[in-house]
Amino acid sequence: MRKISVKIGLLFFCLIFSMEVCLFFLLHQKIAHSRIDEQLSALVTRGNNHRDVLETYYNQETISHIALMEVKSDTEVVIINEQGEVIISSAEMNHQIQNVLNLAKKDISRNGKVIDDNWKSGAYIATVTPFTAGANKGYLYMFQDTGQIKQLMKQLNRHFLIAGIATAFVTAIIILILSRIIAKPLIKMKEATKKLSQGNFSIQLENNSNDELGELAKSIQLLSSELNHLKTERNEFLASISHELRTPLTYIKGYAEVAKRGHLGMDERLSYLKIITEETTKLTTLVTELLELAQLDNNTFTIQKEVFSVYDSLQKVSQKLLPSFKQAEITLLIVCPENIQILADPVRFEQIIVNLLENARKYSPKGTITTVEVAKRNTGIIISIQDQGKGIPSSDIPLIFERFYRVDKSRSRELGGTGLGLAIVKELIDAHHWDIEVSSKINQGSTFTIIVRDES
């Protein structure tokens, strides 16, 4: 993972360093041009000052004085008349100076003009200022050796180089620290995902940031919790299915062995065969429900929705379950307006109601009433199945839709349930995009409420 911190560091360094190089280049150009402009402006001003003195006191002494002043400075002056003849020069005439003097003297204003600013390759920078002193007219040239400017630029380049190296060094250190800070949670996440791949789901990622890294850490933590929950559920499922299959098979095998004995009477043999049949029926029901859950999990089943009457569907369910409710001495009451229709899979809808009613019958004592009530609301249809049974402890309510979960484990075989009915109900409710809520009070009964939202 150290590679990613290096990559992040190099990426940031290249980006920031490129920006710094561009900014330094622009700043250098700006300062260099500013300094050159200052030198040229000062040279023009110096020439204008000499021009003013020359026009005021035009004589040989003034001309000599101007030349003498430039001898003692880092600039040179050359004064020529209108015909181009040199009146005086503070420096020895050479071909560089002569070339400047031979330049065309057009568009030269009284305030002077820069006529040579090539400081990089030329020996001088030069300006010219026209003068008029009575009948005497001419031009006053100012020259400055470019060596001083080149030295100034050299120092400026050296300062920028030192500043650039120092900035790059500081930037590299800061980016190195920042990249390690950024990469540190990524390293922890990599180690966490490695543990997940090895089957260790008990990981803890501490990240209190609200940025993308924090969200990623929370997602990995959530994934770990979900995988740990699934692992626990899988182990419990395998243990439960093993127990649920072993028990009826043990009964079937044991009573089959007993029924094979020759000395048994017909009545006794028939009672054993009846037990074998009951256990076979339970086993068949269990296998059927497991296959159905497998189809629900793999999304290999289809929901064929159509509009049908809820009243008619509940009447069919009532006729189907009424014998078992009468045998249990429990009253089944259907309260549903005849004009309510619903968009759903009619077969799956009946399966949901049957499973919930069977669950109510198993856990309700004799002489009680189980009521199915349907009402239309603004947001859809509410279907409530209320019994007067033993109730569900509040701590068990969040778990009743899990597979093989039973509230009363001691009476599970007596009641004949597989612990899969409510799990199938929940899967079918989710497949229809409905909601189901449960409320219960001990020894007063439970209410399962299906919320069917209007899809029109």
Automatic annotation (TrEMBL):
This is histidine kinase. Gene3D superfamilies: 1.10.287.130, 6.10.340.10, Histidine kinase-like ATPase, C-terminal domain. It catalyses: ATP + protein L-histidine = ADP + protein N-phospho-L-histidine. GO terms for molecular function: kinase activity. Residues 240-456 form the Histidine kinase domain. It is a multi-pass membrane protein. Its main location: membrane. Keywords: ATP-binding, Cell membrane, Kinase, Membrane, Nucleotide-binding, Phosphoprotein, Transferase, Transmembrane, Transmembrane helix, Two-component regulatory system. The chain crosses the membrane at residues 6-27, 160-183. Residues 180-232 form the HAMP domain. Pfam families: HAMP, HATPase_c, HisKA. It comes from Bacillus norwichensis. It comes from the Bacteria. It is found in: Cell membrane. Its EC number is 2.7.13.3. It is an enzyme of class 2 (transferase).
